[in-house]
Structure formats: structure tokens, C-alpha cells
Design goal:
2 copies of one chain form a homodimer.
Chain A (H helix, E strand, L loop, with lengths): L3 H5 L11 H16 L6 H7 L7 H4 L3 H24 L5 H18 L1 H9 L6 H23 L8 H13 L1 H4 L8 H17 L1
Helix pairs in contact in A: 2-3, 2-5, 2-7, 5-6, 5-7, 5-8, 6-7, 6-11, 8-9, 9-11
The first copy, chain A, binds a DNA duplex (18 and 18 nucleotides) through α4.
Chain lengths: 200, 200
DNA sequence: GTCTATAATACGATAGAC
DNA sequence: GTCTATCGTATTATAGAC
């Protein structure tokens, strides 16, 4: 079928059926990412897609719940893409290279979404944060397990893992499409830097 | 004189005379850093120091101006400490080590202030942002000049500079006092990682 | 399901007493 | 210089027509 190639790789928004619920979430990502959650009003989101502010509350119980939905989709997407990146690769060195390439490129391509999921954790309600934190732990644990094979001094694994993930996550802060290097190029370069950090 | 030892190293808040203006700024750093600028109200800041919300407007023309004052102090502090860190050192390798140690430790010690100056740039007014951007350029230019001597491939200097600064800046996002490594320890470790990144 | 209109509240900032 | 009281506005969310 003609659409198989675009649906083979998991769509970021597959959790949401296409329709106003997805359109609203995508508009909210752009607004939250550019201006921050609290600086963004329901009017900003609604105006961007030509709807009234009230339309939001047909598809989401609250603005806070819209943020939670976005955070969940984003965190699950980056985790799933990271897991998929190492699938079928046996060499430890190559697995780390592929993971870091993918993880870094994801934060460049989806830098607005990445800003929301990385810098708006404090805007989540406590119960929402608890669920998101569980996904984040799975991602961090996966990375540590991959990095473990390249770090000789085990006592440094934890700090090195934090540092290597941190390097890629911060891409979301400074990345400017068009001005910054292409996501694949950046991913390849960062993969080399992470190898250097782990082996040092 | 007895106070010479504490005043020899430049005080972060030396730009502000001690008094309500400084107290307000310090309280605002804690609140902005923990909850974000737009999520923080003038009541939050005032309550923290036992004043009324109206007191803020005696010492600052607006909440936006309070943010600008904080941003200016923070950016000038991290720049000045970075410049001081390499003063009198001639060896390029040692200069980079000292700079990264200081720059990283600063973002750990002052992680709440660092969050404000790194993640609230979009909350600044255009004219304020312009002035802040000039200070940021000086810091980035200084770092690139220091790193230049350790990067053999000149075409990679720009991207490596972004990456190395990025690594230390992101400390502000995840650092938790007591739980995370001590600032000096983290700085020393990160200095080694930056060397590995630059030389790779 | 979407709109207009609006309720209820919270916010930044000011007025005026002390 | 600081307070209490409050103004004007903006915000989240709801009510009710279509």
C-alpha cells in the first residue's frame, strides 16, 4: 500500500487519532515550545488553528491535561526511537553510535517538542509528573546499560551517563533550523563526542 | 581588614547595594528558578521576604525589569568568573581546564540563577534581550578563543564550542544540591570530558 | 462539535494613608 | 519606604445557542 513507508516508522502522534485533538496538540507544542507553558494562553493555541478558545475544552479537560498529553507522547516517542535505533545491532560501539545519533537528531528535529518535555516538567501536576518520571527513568536506564560497555571505570558510569544524555538534550535549547547543522550531521558529530567522553 | 577575604572574590550581587532591592532580586531568583518567570507572581516573591506585592514597585518599575536586572547580573557574573579563571595561566591546556571547571561549577552552585538566565531569555523584552545577547556573545567568543588552541580541525571549532558550553550549561537543568556531585568535583570531571571532546 | 458570551478568578500595577 | 485596598485587565473554564 502507498502509505506503508510513512507509517512504518512510528508516527510521533500515532497515539492521537487525526482530528481536532491532534491538531490542538500540535499547535500547543509550537506555542508551548516557543513561549513556555504559562506564557501561552488558550487563545494563542486556538487562534493558530482558527478555532475558539472554548474548542480546546471539548477535546481536553484542561490546559494542564493538554500539556500532560504532549509530555507523554514526546517522552514515549524519544524512548521508542532510541530502542529501535539499536535493534539488531550486536556490537556495543555501534549500538552507542546509533543510539546517540538518533537521540540527538530527535532533539534537533523536534526541538520545540523537546523543549516542552525537558523544560516544562515543573509545570506538570504532581500525578502527571509521576507518570512522566517513570518513562524518563526507563530512557536513562536504557542509556546507562548501553554506555556501560564503553566505560571502564564503573564508578564513573552514572555521571558519564548524565553528561552524555545532557549534551544531546541541551540541543533543544539552542537549535535553530536552517542556521544550526542538519540533524543527521549533528547526530553523527555528537555520537563521536560521546564515544570520546565515555572512553576518556 | 576582616572582610577582605569575602569581598576579594567578586560578589554576585555587587551591582546591587544591600537592601530591599537586592533582597527582592535574590527572592525572585529562587522563585523564577523553581517555577519559571510567568508562573511566578509578584505575590510569591513578596511573601517569601515578608513584604507586600506593592513593595516590589518601589524598587523596580515592573516585574519584567526585575527579570532583566537578574539576567544582567547573572550573565556578567559568569563571564567575569570565566575571565578570572584563566588569568595568569599561560598553558592552553591548563587555561581550558580552569575555565571549564569554573564555568561548570558556577552553573551547579548557582543553578537556580542559571536556569533563569539560560531558560528565560524568551521572557525578556526585545530591548532587554538585545543587551543580554551582547554579553552572551562575549562569553561564547571567549570560550571559542580558548578552545581554538586544542581543536586541530578548525572547521569543527564552532560546533565543538557550542557542544562544550552546552554540556556545562545543561547542569542547571538537572542539578540537585545534596544529591548531585559537589560543584568542584563536577567541574573537574567535566573539564576532563571537554578536553576529550576537543582533542577527539 | 463549535461558536458567542460570560462567569470566576488571578494577575500586574497603582492610589493614598501612614 | 511600606502598607492596605483596589483598579483594570487577562486568564481559565463554563453555559447555552446553533
Amino acid at each position: 500500500m502507498e502509505t506503508s513507508e510513512t507509517t512504518a516508522i512510528s508516527d510521533l502522534w500515532e497515539m492521537l487519532q487525526q482530528g481536532p485533538r491532534r491538531t490542538l496538540a500540535q499547535a500547543a507544542v509550537d506555542e508551548f515550545g516557543k513561549r513556555g507553558f504559562h506564557a501561552t494562553t488558550t487563545r494563542h493555541i486556538a487562534e493558530r488553528i482558527g478555532m475558539s478558545p472554548a474548542a480546546l475544552y471539548i477535546h481536553y479537560p484542561s490546559k494542564a491535561d493538554l500539556l500532560f498529553t504532549i509530555a507523554k507522547i514526546g517522552h514515549e516517542a524519544v524512548l521508542n526511537e532510541s530502542l529501535a535505533a539499536v535493534e539488531g545491532i550486536s556490537d556495543h560501539h555501534e549500538r552507542v553510535l546509533s543510539f546517540v545519533r538518533t537521540f540527538t537528531a530527535w532533539h534537533a528535529v523536534n526541538h520545540l517538542l523537546a523543549r516542552v518535555i525537558q523544560y516544562e516538567l515543573h509545570s506538570l501536576q504532581p500525578d502527571h509528573l509521576k507518570e512522566i518520571a517513570a518513562i524518563r527513568r526507563r530512557t536513562a536506564d536504557f542509556a546507562a546499560e548501553e554506555f556501560r560497555h564503553l566505560v571502564s571505570d564503573t564508578s564513573k558510569l552514572r555521571m558519564r551517563t548524565v553528561a552524555c544524555l545532557s549534551l544531546s538534550i541541551d540541543v533543544a535549547r539552542w537549535y535553530v533550523p536552517g542556521k544550526s547543522p542538519a540533524p543527521e550531521e549533528l547526530g553523527a558529530e555528537y555520537a563521536q563526542l560521546v564515544i570520546a567522553m565515555l572512553r576518556s
